[in-house]
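Researcher: Next sequence.
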Amino acid sequence: MNVQDARWTTAKANLARIKPLAEQNAVSKKDLDDAVGKVESIAKSLEASIESSRHTGTGAWAQRTITISLATPNLEAA
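Model: Next structure:
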């Protein structure tokens, strides 16, 4: 697992933890917004990395695209 993968995993876990708390008003809206923003930011960074690896021919981009697509949390519900 590389650094980007670790950040992605952590951001998704943080969002999953904070979302139910936000629904109960146990944390601020800002905390939820920060968690959503972090997931979106890391997702964009990973997408850029995938696109870059695709153009440089490293070959790992197809697997990572599938992984990110399946793992992206439903941010609309946040």
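Model: The mean pLDDT is 78. The longest helix spans residues 29-56.
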